[in-house]
Amino acid sequence: MDLKTLTFLVVGATFALYIGIAIWARAGTTKEFYVAGTGVHPIANGMATAADWMSAASFISMAGLIAFMGYDGSVYLMGWTGGYVLLALLLAPYLRKYGKFTVSEFIGERYYSKAARIVAVLCLIVASVTYVIGQMKGIGVAFSRFLEVDFHTGVFVGMAIVFVYAVMGGMKGITYTQIAQYCVLIFAYTVPAIFISLNLTGNPVPQLGLGSSMADGSGVALLDKLDMIVTDLGFAAYTAQKMSTMNMLLLTLSLMIGTAGLPHVIMRFFTVPRVADARSSAGWALVFIALLYTTAPAVGAMARLNLMNTIQTGEVGSADGNLIYADRPEWFKNWEKTELLKFEDKNGDGRIQYYNEKDETFAAKAAGFGWQGNEMIKVDNDIMVLANPEIANLPNWVIALVAAGGLAAALSTAAGLLLAISTAISHDVIKGMIAPDISEQKELLASRLAMAGAIVVAGYLGMNPPGFAAQVVALAFGLAAASIFPALMMGIFNKNMDNIGAIVGMLVGLFSTLIYIFWFKGWFFIPGTEMAANNASNWLLGISPEAFGAVGAGLNFASAYVVSKITPPPPEHIQHLVEDIRVPMGAAKAQASH
Amino acid sequence: MSEQTQRQAYWSANLKLVALCLSIWFVVSYLFGIILVEQLNAIHIGGYKLGFWFAQQGSMYIFVVLIFFYAYKMKKLDQQFNVHED
Fold first, then answer.
1. DSSP symbols for A385-433
2. Which chain A residue has its CA at the smallest distance from B57's CA?
3. What is the pTM assigned to this prediction?
4. How near does any CA of chain B get to the CA of A239, in Å?
5. In terms of CA atoms, which chain A residue is nearest residue B70?
6. Which among A76, A398, A532, B59 could bridge A538 via Cys, Cβ 3.0 to 4.6 Å?
7. Is residue B86 part of a domain?
């Protein structure tokens, strides 16, 4: 069977499964729609959270990023997993105890202020919308590549599918669908990794394979071999640090705090039956996430090794050490069609030279070999995971599976984000501010309409992306880190934090981060409006815009603390509320004992 | 112990536990994975340099263990101070 038919079959079968689950788990009440009736087992919830969390970026882009960043890619691995420790220890159990539907509802009541709630809704919608644009774009790219339709049709198909199961099922439908999606995506991710690891090192476990010796009988460790190959061609060693230590620290911290502050992730912990389950559920989520995240560095390193070996077939500098362009493998040709991989024969010898022309010493040496520049003029990070099974000559069904896995990752994240957005609109804006007396049926209708509206907006922006996918993700994390996380944490851990302190803190965090990013990347990312060139010599204390979220969070904490000291403390009933959420014991009992 | 003081004792026990867990969280990622990475890279386990291993593998395993450790300890504290659910 050819690849296209097979892809249709595998992707079609998985979608039939998701939609079937959505119909089976239709939501009847607002509670089921928002939080799945708080009756989801912690392991099931952990699995759904993992699918919700791992987007197209985790599935498709991360291993590719690591392949080219090497050790520096650790910031994503540690940053996107370490946030769950913060969630489990600092937020999840208390928000579950509080027992409401949304993050902004908690902020509004804890800080006894509609203004605080509005600021929180604003931060939440901005963070979620920016994040969902990237997902819709990813869905469009994946559909158009594998179903061979044009990009716009791809986005439409994706919108229709998300619409069916997110709008009908709400949180209940999404939760069960996401469990199925997790199974598809983790299977699709690990199967090729196991084959490739076995192939290169003889060890079927990729996490161990990465630390093993090459199976070619040389006894050299895979990572040492990779260091050798890349440095021989003028690239920095794979295991060496290239980013400044300060930026590594701050970027990791920003990603961790941002993860713990992203509303669609926090919302998952309202779904478990008990407070104790909220703690362990975060642990289960991280187990399922770590399965992919500990495999990713192996996939990255092995893909890089395979890529280098494919092109540099013999000794560096020898006459026949480089691949003849006419003999290039099939996957090379396939990806050339997408223009994500580009070759230009600069010295006209019909062979491919792939090296670091920016390294002056090596460039001079390369000139001595008759090389006239790096001829792989484009190798897009994002193709590494998708091309991996082809590079390793795996059967077609594995390639079809990877397509289904990438789509599962993108769709599950998009659905979770859309739910967070529609809940913010129907529950926080409509029920909380405009029409508090709205009936349950009408609220449910409003949230379904809001979700349909959000899908249309996200689809439109996905088709007309403002051209800044990577920056947008950094922005979403920076904003969540700088605005939402500190407000939540202080609300629980500092009984004396008052409304004015929290609002000032959120605004300081939000705007300091926004302005710092816009300063170097252009106002609203419009090219040409940058206030200074985006390079290390212009950055404040050498801090890159992506890493600034942690600083914004620090400013939020500091300004909120100072303001709370000079403004009146919160009223007594709020202090009681805080004391009450700190213990798991039921709210009814706690009230009776006062 | 009155319920009020018991709750305060529970909360400070919780804060101590959180502080312990976050210290471990900091040590395995920021300290071993980033700040001391060069020094630790002098040590090899299998084909891994130790600092590199902490940054790309070890820290994540320890994060998982840490959350379950915290959940387990808190369950015990909930019982001990009689603030558990149901």
1. HHHHHHHTT--HHHHHHHHHHHHHHHHHHHHHHHHHHHHIIIIIIIIII
2. A294
3. 0.89
4. 7
5. A89
6. A532
7. no
